[in-house]
């Protein structure tokens, strides 16, 4: 049966109280070691190795379910946290990425041919070589392949919100999933339990989509006995940097496109003075957009007192 990241420990559609408790109790077994983040942050392990491996995973799995890629990166981080790779050769990084994707595909019951991985930069791996690397990864992960990820907690947390409208519930879930995918590449989120990342992503999504109901959602998650409120606060606020960066990139893309205003500016800026005024105007518009975005995300920041009051 295909492995479901949203329901890793049971085949039942509805999570029981026992299965939910099991998720919280076992989630730390599916995380990188505690020293992994500090090693990346201190430079003991080259962060570029992780970035290159993730880029390769994305390349090899781009035509498949995005959850397959997420699962492969989870395997990657857990393996790297056990095997310090200071400056591995490029072919080793490629082999590691291929093997993580291959293992994730097997768990997801996805058919992937070895030929899909060949022909990249002249590096060719046979089935036996990939199999050996897979065995090495399995040993590092202690054969715990049914990873507990942030996706495993989404249904449980959403049920606490007691939303009555299925389309709104789906919209909230879709936005939270998007934020979780964005956060995986950032090493700062490696220190948080999957449940904390999941709850924080849902808080961020709910503030964007349902600002009037946000206090109720915040209260519901704060009352969850399994969640550490301080960690929830720090993770939520860290996610705002991810959201801000996303909005800024969108704003920059919009500002760079041709608009009626830009066209009119170009028509009436034939003189040198006109050109100067146009540049000043565009810069002013961009600065105003940045201030609006910063103000929006600043309003989303939750302080300790706000969480602890519930």
From TrEMBL:
Domain Cyclin-like: 55-139, 152-241
One Pfam short name: Cyclin_N
Cross-referenced SUPFAM superfamilies: Cyclin-like
Keywords, alphabetical: Cell cycle, Cell division, Cyclin
GO BP annotations, alphabetical order: cell division
Domain of life: Eukaryota
Keyword flag Cell cycle: yes
Entries under SMART domains matching the protein: CYCLIN, Cyclin_C
Database matches in InterPro entries: Cyclin, Cyclin-like_dom, Cyclin-like_sf, Cyclin_C-dom, Cyclin_N
Subunit structure: Interacts with the CDC2 protein kinase to form a serine/threonine kinase holoenzyme complex also known as maturation promoting factor (MPF). The cyclin subunit imparts substrate specificity to the complex.
UniProt record similarity statement: Belongs to the cyclin family. Cyclin D subfamily.
Annotated protein name in UniProt: B-like cyclin
């Amino acid at each position: 049966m295909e492995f479901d990241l949203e329901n890793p420990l049971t085949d039942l559609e509805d999570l029981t109280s026992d299965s939910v408790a099991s998720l919280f109790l076992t989630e730390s077994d599916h995380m990188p070691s505690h020293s992994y983040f500090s090693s990346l942050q201190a430079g003991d392990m080259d962060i570029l190795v992780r970035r290159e491996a993730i880029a390769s995973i994305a390349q090899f799995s781009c035509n498949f379910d995005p959850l397959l890629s997420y699962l492969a990166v989870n395997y990657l981080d857990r393996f790297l946290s056990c095997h310090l790779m200071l400056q591995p050769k490029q072919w080793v990084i490629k082999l590691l990425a291929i093997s993580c994707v291959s293992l994730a595909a097997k768990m997801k019951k996805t058919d992937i041919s070895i030929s899909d991985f060949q022909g990249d930069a002249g590096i060719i791996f046979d089935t036996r070589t990939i199999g050996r690397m897979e065995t090495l990864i399995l040993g590092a992960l202690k054969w715990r392949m049914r990873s507990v990820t942030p996706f495993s907690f989404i249904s449980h947390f959403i049920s606490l919100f007691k939303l009555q409208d299925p389309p709104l519930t789906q919209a909230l879930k879709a936005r939270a999933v998007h934020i979780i995918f964005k956060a995986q590449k950032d090493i700062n989120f490696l220190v948080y339990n999957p449940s904390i990342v999941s709850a924080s992503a849902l808080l961020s999504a709910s503030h964007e989509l349902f600002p009037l109901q946000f206090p109720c959602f915040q209260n519901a998650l704060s009352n969850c006995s399994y969640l550490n409120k301080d960690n929830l606060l720090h993770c939520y606020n860290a996610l705002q940097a991810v959201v801000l960066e996303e909005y800024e990139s969108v704003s920059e893309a919009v500002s760079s496109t041709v608009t009626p205003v830009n066209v009119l500016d170009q028509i009436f800026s034939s003189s040198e003075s006109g050109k100067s005024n146009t540049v000043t105007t565009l810069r002013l518009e961009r600065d105003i957009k940045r201030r609006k975005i910063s103000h929006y995300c600043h309003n989303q920041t939750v302080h300790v007192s706000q969480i602890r009051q519930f």
